[in-house]
Every structure is written in C-alpha cells, then in structure tokens.
Amino acid sequence: MRIDIHSHVIPPRILDAIAADPKGFAARVEGTGAQRRMVHEQGYVYPLFEEFIDPAAKLKVMDRKGLDLSIVSTAPPMFYYWAEPELAATAARLVNDGIAEMVATAPDRLRGMASVPMQHPELAVAELERAVKTHGFRAVEIGTTIEGVQLADPRFRPFLRKARDLGVLVFIHPYYVGAKAGLEAYYLTNLVGNPVDTTVSLANLLFSGALDELSGLKLLVAHGGGYLPYQIGRLVHGQKVRAEPKALTTSSPRDLLRTLYFDTILFDPQALRHLVDVVGADHVVLGTDAPFDMGDETPLESLAAVPGLSDAERERIGAGTALALLDGAA
Questions:
Q1: Binning pLDDT at 50, 70 and 90, where does residue 45 land?
Q2: What is the pTM of this model?
C-alpha cells in the first residue's frame, strides 16, 4: 500500500462561491475548460487543473503514480487568513464540506483534511471540532504562519492543544502573500521562500517552548521540513553558546525535531536519505504536492532511489507512518 499524505484539492463548493461573489471572496475564475485559472487579489494566479476539482481526475493520476490512498487538503490560497470572522468561517465550512463531498465519492481511496480560520482561534477550534464530528476528519492543514504571525505565538496555543487532545494530525504548509525582498526573480518566492518560511516557523516552535508544552501533538511538516533538518546542528550549537535560544526552553532542538513528521518532497535522494537518518523512517511519510508544478510526479521512484533503505523502512515511509498518524495503526 502507498499513501500520499500531501495532495491538494479545491472543492467545487468554494469555486462556485467565488464565482458567485468574486468581490466578497477577493478572487475570480478566468477562462474556460483547460484554460481556467484562479486569480486572487493577494497575488496568487494558478491553473485550475481538473485534479483539483474532480475526484475522478485525482484517482486517475493516483493510479498513474501507483498510489492507493490520498489524504487531500485544500490549496493554501483557500486559507483566507486575511478575512474577517464571517467570511473566514464561511470559507472554511465551504472547503471542509466540499472536501467531504469529494472523498465520499471514493472513501476507500480518498480521505480529507480540514481547513480552519486560524486568524480567529476560537472559530478555528469550533470548525476543527465540527470537521472531526461531522466529517470524521483526522487531520487539519494550517499555514506555517498566519498572515505573518508565527505559529509559536501564544494566541494559537489553544487551537494546537485542541488538535492534540482530539488526536488530530496537524499539517503545516507554507503560505505566502506577495513578493519578498530578494526573492522577486526566478520564482524564488516559492523555490526558496517556502522552505525558508517553514524553517523559520519550526525554529520558533522549537525555541519558544511551544513543543514542550504541546507534548503529544502530531505535527507534520511539508517539503521535508524546509532547511531545518539539514541545519539542525547550527541550532544545537547556538543553544549551547548563546543565551537567547535557551531563554524559554532548554530542550535539545535535535530531540524536539525528532518528535515531528516530514513528507518526502525533496527531489533529491541524498537529501531524503539524510532526513531519514536524522528523524527516522517512522517520522517520514510519502507526499506529492499534487497537482502543483512543484509536486513530485514520480513519488515511488523517488522513494526507491534513496540509498540504503531497508524494505521495512520503505514500508514505513510508503504507508506505515501515515496509517499510524491517522488511525493509530502500527
């Protein structure tokens, strides 16, 4: 069995709502057929691939890639973290109800992740509880930051605590808005900016004491953890020689890193080998980031190319870890 834990959809429910009220949702759909694209006022523009919208198209691509099960989450532009409470809550409900409809068409092959209005923590808690109770979701996707505010900020602690208490997997995914200094050219906002955002988010979680307080939280990190697993020694050294990194916690950054989970989307077998060496195969899961162009089109080949993996480690990464996170299965 092979499970993709990082696969995106955009439910027709939210698309229809945007098309009906482009001003209110600050977005519009342009073009027709294969040329349709989503344009957000915040600056995102991307094609509306059928795989985003149509479960049958998602299944067809899964078959081509050799995937048995996909845990689908919304595309990050649908987070609506900038929105006021009413719109934010509406958008999250549309996304979650829409994902539930999509996975219901193939429940043996698709499962859903919730989306929540993180900028309004009380609403986020309520929507998470609703998604778990109503739809049976066992995972939730959130941004690495919330409109520039770090996840380590105490205002988000009640939501993360609720996710932990519910046993829900929290998947953190980069979410950026507009250009960033030095990253304007060459698509660096994504190529470099996304891993940087992830790295900064994790470093804040490690040094803030948040992960100590939230012991038992199941936290999955996109894109192999950004740059952090490959520079963790620098954080360990910094905590030894500087006062600032140990002001709120004396827990080892390396030990805390090993409590987190990471997907395989690194595009380099040696980098993935290093990640497994640092955190263990039981903390790595298969991911594709489909259908974005920065996704892994050959995830099983990527896994097979990692040098020195045992059959047991491949099974762990391919399915075992994901099942343990979502179902509590060994």
A1: confident
A2: 0.96
